[in-house]
Structure formats: structure tokens, C-alpha cells
Amino acid sequence: MSKNKDQLKVCILGAKGYPYVYGGYDTMVKELGERLQKKGVDVRVYCHRSLFKERPAEVNGIKLIYTPAIESKSLTQLSHSFVSMLHACFSDVDVIFVVNSANGPFGILSRLFRKPTAINVDGLEWLRPKWKGFGSKYFFWASKMATRFYDQVINDSDEMKRIYLELFHKDSKVIAYGANPSFESDVKKLNKWSLEKESYYLIVGRLIPDNNADLIISGFVKSESKRKLVIVGDVPYKDPYVDNLKAIQDPRLLFTGYVTDSEELKALYHNAYAYFHGHEFGGTNPAMLKALGYGCAILALNTAFNQEMLQNGKHGWYFEKSAKAVSEIVGKAENSPEELDLLRQTARDGLTQKYNWDFVTNQYLHVFEDLKKKNGKA
């Protein structure tokens, strides 16, 4: 195929790579990259070299560039992004798209090389309990630098747009995260954990303090529910917080660890009596989108982000940040099977157009095309 000199060339960096899918950003790179490629965009993704045993130059039409990193807990992601940004600045790409506000300072490189850039800044990382002291200060500063050095800041929720405007006096474009709704799953997948349809409540997410699994577990244990509470997720390191959770003695608690089989995870969502969402910081949350797309009755921590995603109570119930409130909402759920069934039936209606991956991709494409034009390359 002959090269089209007018073809839009976009590189994506800041995630783990493609087709590696582990977290939210990796999923976005996959969903967005594949759709952009089908629309005729020359898509290049920077991959964290050590995560890929095999390193093909191209997968599904997406060009892959494997860059190294300083392999340490605090420097892996930043060093990988720095090297990737440097490489991108010396390449012929029209637009550099960066994910993760931690990479905010690296926008100074693209400024020096006059490369058009966009950054998806994610949530309020500096407020997360895991980033104490220097980590918290770094994320706040890095997010501020992102608003100074990048041509287009992208947030995934209206609430995040408001916060960035208030804190950093920078307007941003809101492009939400996409969802892949599903209506069917194999209930027999639950046999692995001796579960039956609607015999359990569900939590899905990393077991870190800001997702509030401890609060939900504590409240659930105080409730009189005969159902189980299934906790899907873990952390890939030894952690006292997680050890304490797993040490709680109650036969209703079931810790599955990571569930990497997508069909098993789908079955767990589909057949839950209700899904608990305790995530506190961030914009559009992928686990919440899955819960909506898989038809869950959702019980969510009362935050501005969760209010936005559930349309102020149209698609879920809220609980305040206390074990007592969790226990009370479990009691309410136990006594309201018809209301929960209605939430399940209408959950997918919450996936409005802004959460559609094709719509999301078109919005990103417009941003990239505009950046190329402003740079005089169109």
C-alpha cells in the first residue's frame, strides 16, 4: 500500500502498551487505537518493553514501538513515558497523545520540538491515600504542568473538567470512557465459587484504600443478609491493608483474587444481586461502566463522580462513607427485590451516547485532526 502523505499519524504513550490489557488506560488504548486504525489513521503505540516477551512490529494494523524503562516501583512508568516521549518527538508523527497526568511535565519536550499534543489526565491522583507525601505533591504538580505544556487537556467527566478549571484555571475537553454492554453470560461459570444467581453482592476493583472495600466489608458484616459478599480483585504485592481485609472472619465473605477470564467476570457481574461501587477519586470509572453494561443493580458511594455516572440516582442507589450506611443500604436492598430488579432492567439505559466507544473515538479523532491543522500540517 502506498503511503498517503496526508494520512494522520498519531502515537499513543503513557500506558503499558498494546494489545496488553490490564487496567483502564490499556483498555482505552486498545478500543481507541483499533477504531482509529480502521478509520485510516496511522496509529503507533509505545509499549513497555519488559512486559512483552514477543515484540511484533505491528498487530491489527497498529504499529508498536518497544521502549525501555528503569525497572523500579516508583520510576518504571515515568521513565518509560520519558523515553517514549523523546522518541516520539524525533519521529514524523503529527500528534502525540499521552495518558496519565503523571506524565504532565514531559509536555515540555513536545513543546521544544513543536509537536502537537493531547493528554488524558485521569482522576484526582494526588488525593489517593496510596500517594502520601512526595507522591501526592508530585501528582498535583504534574497535573498542573499538564495544563501548561499540552495543547489539549482531556478529562473524562464534567466534574473533572470543573475541578481542573477551579484548581488550575484551565479549560478541558470532556471525552468519556467507552463501554461494551453485554446481555448474556454463562451462569455455570459461577460453579467455580459455588455461587448461584443473585445469591451474592459484588465488589470489583484493586484492593486499595481509596476503593473503600474495607468500609463496604465492615458494613456488610454488620448486616443481617444471608447472601455472600464476593470481592474480586487484589494487589500484586504484600500489603497489610489487604491482609487485614482477608483476616476478617465471616463465612459470607468470598475473596476470589484476580479474575482474568473475561467470561467468568461477566458472569459474576450479570448474576449479582447488587454491585457495590466504593471508588472515591476519579472521573468515569471502567468498573462502573461494566456494571451498567452488564445490567447490575448498583449501590455506589455518594460522590460527585458517581452521581454523574448514575445520573443523580436514576441508575443506582447511594450510600454515605460509613459502615453504618453500608449496613443500612444492604438492609434496604434485602427488602426491595422488585426495585433492584428494575435497576437491573434499566441499567444499560445509563450508557448514553457519551459512553459509546465509536462516539468516543470520533471525538478523539476531531481533537487530533484539529491539532494537526493548527500546526499547519493539513
Q: Could you please say which CATH topology of the largest domain applies here?
A: Rossmann fold
Which structural class matches the secondary elements?
alpha/beta
Strand order of the largest sheet: 3-4-2-1-5-6-7-8
Percent helix range: 25-40%
Can you tell me the overall shape? globular
The CATH superfamily of the largest domain is known as Glycogen Phosphorylase B
State mean pLDDT (0 to 100 scale): 91
Which percent range describes the beta-strand content?
15-25%
The string of secondary-structure elements, in order, is: EHEEEHEHEHEHEEHEHEHEHEHEHHH
In short:
With 378 residues, this protein is an alpha/beta fold. The chain has 2 domains: 9-178 and 356-374, Rossmann fold (3-Layer(aba) Sandwich), CATH 3.40.50; 187-352, Rossmann fold.
Structure description:
The structure is a single chain. By secondary structure, the protein is of the alpha/beta class. The protein is built from 13 helices and 14 strands. The protein has two domains: 9-178 and 356-374, Glycogen Phosphorylase B (Rossmann fold, 3-Layer(aba) Sandwich); 187-352, Rossmann fold (3-Layer(aba) Sandwich). It has helices at 24-38, 76-89, 107-112, 134-149, 158-168, 213-222, 240-246, 262-270, 286-293, 304-309, 323-334, 337-346, 357-374, and strands spanning 9-13, 42-48, 58-59, 62-67, 95-99, 117-120, 152-155, 173-174, 200-204, 228-232, 253-257, 274-277, 298-301, 317-319. Strand 10, helix 7 and strand 11 form a beta-alpha-beta unit. The two termini are 21 Å apart. Keywords: Transferase. Pfam families: DUF1972, Glycos_transf_1.
